[in-house]
Design goal:
Layout: E1 2-4, E2 10-17, E3 24-30, H1 33-47
Antiparallel strand pairs: 1-2, 2-3
Amino acid sequence: MIRKLKSGKYRIYSRKVDAKTHKRRNLGTFESMDEAKKHEREIQYFKHH
């Protein structure tokens, strides 16, 4: 899940909520939406290989 921050950057959050903190895990912050989407694809690839 990618969200835009107030600073104008984009952050990837985990899809599931963490059981302990009840928040989504921060998986990285990026300057542009394209960079964030690219990294999200890399994360999904890594999870399934």
